Amino acid sequence: MSSQAELDNSELDRVIRSEYEAGFTTLVESDTLPPGLNEDVIRVISAKKEEPEWLLEWRLEAYRHWQTMQEPNWAHVEYPPVDLNAISYYSAPKSMEGRPKSLDEVDPELLETYKKLGIPLHEQEMLAGVAVDAVFDSVSVATTFKSKLAEAGVIFCSISEAVREHPELVRKYLGSVVPKGDNYFAGLNSAVFTDGSFVYIPKGVRCPMELSTYFRINEANTGQFERTLIVADEGSYVSYLEGCTAPQRDENQLHAAVVELVALPGAEIKYSTVQNWYPGDEDGKGGIYNFVTKRGVAHDHAKISWTQVETGSAITWKYPSVVLRGDHSVGEFYSVALTRHAQQADTGTKMIHLGRNTKSTIVSKGISAGKSSNAYRGLVRMGPRAENARNFTQCDSLLLGDTCGAHTFPYIETKHPSATVEHEATTSKVSDDQLFLCRQRGIDPEKAISMIVNGFCKEVFKELPMEFAVEAGKLLEVSLEGAVG
Amino acid sequence: MSGDNALNLPEDLKTRALENARQATPVEALAPLRQEALAALEGAAFPGRKTEAWKYTSLYALTDGHLAARAEGAAPEDLPRLSDYRLVLVNGRLDERHTTLPEGVSLGRRASRLEGLTTPFALYNGAALEDAVTLDVAANTDVSAPIQVLHVSAGDAPSHCNTRLEVNLAAGSRLTLIEQYLGAGPVLTNAVTAIQAADNARLTHYRLQADAGDSLHIGTLLFQQTGVSRIDSYQLMAGNRLRRNDVRAFLDKSGAELNMHGIFVARDRSHIDNQLCVEHRVPECTSNQVYRGLAGEKGRAVLNGRIHIHPGAKGTLAELSNKNLLLNPGAEIDTKPELEIYNDDVKCAHGATVGQLDALQQFYLQSRGIPLAEAKRMLSLGFVNELIMSLPDQTVADWAQPWLAAELGQRPGADEEAA
Amino acid sequence: MLEIRDLHASVAGQPILKGLNLTVKPGEVHAIMGPNGSGKSTLANVLAGRDNYEITGGEALFEGKSLAELEPEERAQLGLFLAFQYPVEIPGVSNMEFLKAALEATRAAQGKEEWDSVTLLRKAREACKQVDLDPQFLKRGVNEGFSGGEKKRNEIMQMLLMEPKLALLDETDSGLDIDALQTVAKGVNSLRGPERGIVLVTHYQRLLDYIVPDHVHVLSGGRIIKSGGKELALELEQHGYGWLTDDQNGGNDKEDRTA
Fold first, then answer.
1. What is the CA radius of gyration of chain A?
2. How, if at all, do strands A237-243 and A211-212 pair?
3. Is some CB atom of chain B closer than 8 A to the CB atom of C84?
4. In whole angstroms, what is the distance from residue C41 CA to residue A126 CA?
5. Do B258 and B249 touch, CB atoms closer than 8 A?
6. Cβ separation of A425 and B350 shorter than 8 Å?
7. Would you say B326 and B297 are in contact if contact means Cβ atoms under 8 Å apart?
8. Do B280 and B307 contact (CB within 8 A), yes or no?
């Protein structure tokens, strides 16, 4: 790994030195841009993706605004500053060279985890970035997938493809939920995003299957600056799954994705995430920084539901939110966040009630172990027109051990007298009595704890699609191993 | 007053504060504290629009120049009496004519350097002090009748005063303290009250804030439970032009218990912001907080209730409950109960609700012939009644009931607005 | 005193009463029976003026005044009393305080002399005794933590104190054991008099063993489909509602029978 990094660095140094002599054309032709960010870099990204003029302009505006912004510091997380000029903002998909040639060359600990999660061999290869040609089974699965979706009129493709094939939809909705100047990381994403998914469900269509990024193999590299846009037209329904329970290898430290959901009148979007990026070693070294902006707008009678199981990343900064713009719209947030070792998570949601008779539910389960820090941060805002709006929030923390931290920061702002907000939070531990009972019945402590933790998370797991829920349970079990003394 | 000042209010406030602090002429015993506080103030920043702890409270009202002048005015002759024992501070200065203290309680004109007084306003209070009162309750003294401390602000023009009270309960002592704030003029009361309780001390504390109208109040209330002690604090607070109460409690000896009960009401255009922070720093302490808030007309009521469990504070029991009533459109309630926990062997919970009067209850009362306005008043009163009923001292309850009845009463035209 | 003509009413936009006629004269006791969902409770709530219970056609006159135009408290002040099917709990407002406010408002409106606190307390205690309610209840919050039976007795206690002209009892018998039922009946019977009208809304006949009505009406599908004397109640007891409602072939009772 380290020799690889050195190699990359010297390569990059060379490119940096040659930057100005080589000029724009050379940049476009090269596979990897030198580290650093400026307007030329953005022009190159846009040119490489053969984007229309309006999108380039959009990116440049985002960039110019972003330059005036400051990195937020209010979250309950600590990390050394990220040097954004040390990042290369475009690189073509990795060639087979330099990748492990077989699973024998992969970190055995990673393989052990895959085995525990029961991941099939060929998927292990894909996840570990083994240089095998595209995973054949998945390709065929993906093909059947595509034809079925096309029949229903569902568009599911990469965002770059959507820019080319469905420019009118992208132009209409891109940035309509998370404006390009929304926050520091979203601003950066808007300027430089290179990858992501696009979904459009036509009027009245119930998407015939759960859409999963896992099968969208046409872009193998998970981008550092992913951009996802899902538009559910009137009366449609879609369930979207993101991520994967297996720990994913990724050499990019900073991830600043943006996800935008648009639920038009009567539509429903269910967005489920399992996030298990590399959390770093026991001291958090080398782990991924996950600074994500996720937000949906629900129009009249529409419903947006976020479910997330977060176990990875060194730092998580993430608040999937719903703007309940339409009357009778519904927002939901179900979350399990597990932190261990030196992980830090500051995650939660925002429910912005604008319309009448809007309803939101928040269930957050935080589990902290090791030396980690786990914070729920939420905002429930009842606007001046949110007549009869309702929110219920349940926010529970489970602490494993006395060196971790669990925090709750719920903001409640109410401007309408007929709105009702209820917030409850508790904190607990796995009690000695519970453990003793299990052990007395012959269950080993690790298993007992994982049972108790699973019970603690049940309310959230039941919101996940069945298969995902089983995997999520297993994931927690594996993540908790050795977490308890 | 000028637009320029408004543009950089935090800087302006700091400049004024430092100027005032340097010119203050304190009683001798306060000089060392003043120097230290002044040094700290020099390094401090006054809150601006983006300061998280002041998210819901703007200091814009202070552009009227309250910090530019010290309040000069006389207290009204007719001061309320809630006990035989009384102490009166007018614009922060002790009015010796009124002082009557029970045996076992001694009075000093001094103040101490204390942990937890960290806000710029608390620092300014220390840096600009010209007078201060410390009450020492002797060990094993049981003071039967309450001591009433009146903080009176008086002045006709925008101005301010710094008022400071410290109370030390020695081991085994018992005390009932009634702190009452009075004043209606355009005076900012910058208050600090610090109470320390040693082993087996027991304090019943009241904080009555009915100073209304143009008055402003920014204050810190500090509890330091250095001994196995019990403090019950009852806080009855009306909003005014700007009211900001920071309450900090340190539970520093295992077995200490703190109970805080509060009612805060923001009617008309008034504002009240409560910032509570209870620090559990040692094992086996208990804290319990119950706050009820109401906002009506254009009033705004804010509560931020933080419970901080430090590493090692195992066996902590900590709870906070904050229920709020929003009476009509135009009013606002913002609440944020916070937990910050660094130990697993604890029992902590908080709950917050914001709602409105129950329609079915209103109908039930109406169906018994009670007019709507009266029904609303009764239900609002019922919402806070539990706390009023739990007040241990009858004199305070007798004061509180009519006060609340007036605070929760019908406002002209409120019904049409609600309809 | 109560004159209901072709009354149509809906609850939250849903039509429930569909042309109901009923006349109650002073001194009469009427029982309104009917299957679940027939509109019995709707009638009681419409008359008392509950929110969302809207008169959409016809009229209901009380003492010659149109109820539709009156606020709930104005109806109460005129002497109309509803004993609720599900009395609400009001923590923080004591029964005594509540009674004082209610009696002050209604007695003043009716030109009756005001009761001082001592009289009120004495009367309230007597009323409690009459319905076997511990006077300690007066100090507690309205219905707060009361059992189902205690809540119902509390309703009757309030009725005794308020001496209404017309009492509507909405399923007051439901959920009561036989002792409590007799207590409640005793309270209601003590109020019977030539000046007072009483309307009992009930699903079961058993209350009518203790409070013998002058008239019995069967409500189904939002209308009164049969009226008669007290013997009608016995018939219903024996045969159920089926033989009546089948003829009518309507109403919301279908679910009931399948359930």
1. 22
2. parallel
3. yes
4. 66
5. yes
6. yes
7. no
8. yes
C-alpha closest to that of B333 among B323, B343, B341, B345: B323
Interchain CB distance below 8 Å, B379 and C90: yes
* Strand, coil or helix: B149: strand
Q: Is residue B309 within 8 Å of A380, Cβ to Cβ?
A: no
**Does residue B136 belong to any structural domain of this protein?**
yes
Q: What CA–CA distance (Å, rounded) separates B341 from A6?
A: 41
Q: What is the CATH number of the domain that holds C79?
A: 3.40.50.300
Length of chain C: 259
A421 contacts in chain B (CB < 8 Å): 352-355
Q: Are B192 and B220 a contacting pair, CB within 8 Å?
A: yes
Q: Subunits touching C (CB < 8 Å, at least 3 pairs)?
A: B
Element at A304 (helix H, strand E): strand A303-310
Q: How many domains does chain C have?
A: 1
Q: CA C46 to CA C55: how far, in whole Å?
A: 7
Q: What three-state secondary structure class fits A194?
A: coil
Domain count, chain B: 1
CA atoms within 13 A on the CB side of C50: 20
Domain range holding C61? 2-258
Chain C: give the shortest CA distance to residue B403, in Å.
Answer: 17
Residue with tokens 């189904």: C220
Q: Which residue of chain A is at minimal alpha-carbon distance from B336?
A: A411
Residues of C in contact with B375 (CB under 8 A): 73
For residue range B231-267, list pLDDT tens digits in order. Answer: 999 999 999 999 999 999 999 999 999 999 999 999 9
Taking an 8 Å cut-off on Cβ atoms, the answer to whether A400 and B328 are in contact is no
Residues of A (393-432) whose Cβ lies below 8 Å from B: 397, 399-429
A394: tokens are 């349940």
Please check whether residue B27 lies inside any domain of the structure: yes
Q: Which residue bears the tokens 């539709």?
A: C68
Largest CA distance in chain B: 67
Q: Count each helix (H run) and each strand (E run) in chain A, helices first.
A: 12, 20
Q: What does the alpha-carbon distance between residue B20 and residue B22 come to, in Å, rounded to a whole number?
A: 5
| Domain-located, residue B354 | no
Contact A267, A235 (CB under 8 A): yes
Asked, for residue B134, whether it belongs to a domain, the answer is: yes
Q: Which two tokens stand for residue C8?
A: 């149509």
Domain region containing B239: 3-253
Inter-chain CB proximity A412 and B346 less than 8 Å: no
pLDDT digits (tens), chain B, 419 positions: 444 444 688 999 999 999 999 988 878 888 888 889 999 999 999 998 888 899 999 999 998 889 989 999 888 888 999 999 999 999 999 998 889 999 999 999 999 989 889 999 999 999 999 999 999 999 999 998 999 999 999 999 999 999 999 999 999 999 999 999 998 899 999 999 999 999 999 999 999 999 878 999 999 999 999 999 999 999 999 999 999 999 999 999 999 999 999 999 999 999 999 999 999 999 999 999 999 999 999 999 999 999 999 999 999 999 999 999 999 889 999 999 999 999 888 999 999 999 998 889 999 999 999 999 889 888 998 899 888 888 999 999 999 988 998 888 877 654 444 33
Please choose, from the candidates C255, A407, C244, the residue with its C-alpha nearest in 3D space to the C-alpha of residue B350.
A407
Q: Tokens in use for C235?
A: 């018939």
Rounded to a whole number of angstroms, the CA Rg of chain B reads 21
Pairing, β A405-414 against β B332-341: antiparallel
Strand partners, B117: none
Q: Give CA–CA dist B256/B280, Å, rounded.
A: 10
Residue of chain B whose alpha carbon sits nearest to that of A406: B341
Mean pLDDT by 10 residues, chain C (259 residues): 94 91 95 88 90 91 92 90 88 83 89 91 94 90 87 93 93 87 92 93 87 93 91 83 59 36
In contact, A273 and A302? CB cutoff 8 Å: no
* Smallest Cα distance from B160 to chain C, Å: 39
